[in-house]
Amino acid sequence: MSGLPNCPKCGSEYTYDDSIQYVCPECAHEWSKDAVETSGEEERVYKDAHGTVLVDGDSITVIKDLKVKGSSSVVKVGTKVKNIRLIEGDHDIDCKIDGIGPMKLKTEFVKKA
C-alpha cells in the first residue's frame, strides 16, 4: 500500500505524487494535496446526556450510579470529574476520579458541569 489516496473521479489506486498535486494515470484527473487533507474524515463531536458538546479539559458530573468493573466500588450520582480527555472507542471519556483512580466513561452517563 502506497499511502496515497485513490482517485476521487474514477477510484483508481494507481495515483502518484507530482510535487504539489496528485495525478491519476488512468483518467488523467489532477487534484491538489490540500483538497485531500481538508476532505478527510470530519472530527467527531462528543455530546453529554443532555446534548451539550464536550471538549478536552471540561468538568463533568456523573448522572447515574456506575459500578466499577472488577471492584466493589461505585461511582455515585453527582460525582464531579475535572479535566477530562476525549478518546475514540466504546468509552469516550478518559479521566481520573478522586478515590477510585483512572477510569473510562461513556458520554451518555455524564453531563457537563
TrEMBL record:
Gene3D superfamilies: 2.20.25.10, SH3 Domains (2.30.30.40). GO terms for molecular function: hydrolase activity. Keywords: Hydrolase. It comes from the Bacteria. Pfam families: YjdM, Zn_Ribbon_YjdM. Residues 47-113 form the Protein YjdM C-terminal domain. InterPro entries: YjdM (IPR004624), YjdM_C (IPR013988), YjdM_N (IPR013987). SUPFAM superfamilies: Prokaryotic SH3-related domain, Zinc beta-ribbon. Residues 4-32 form the Protein YjdM N-terminal domain. NCBIfam families: phnA. Belongs to the YjdM family. PANTHER family: PROTEIN YJDM (PTHR30305:SF3), PROTEIN YJDM-RELATED (PTHR30305). This is Phosphonoacetate hydrolase. It comes from Marinospirillum insulare. The lineage of its organism: Bacteria, Pseudomonadati, Pseudomonadota, Gammaproteobacteria, Oceanospirillales.
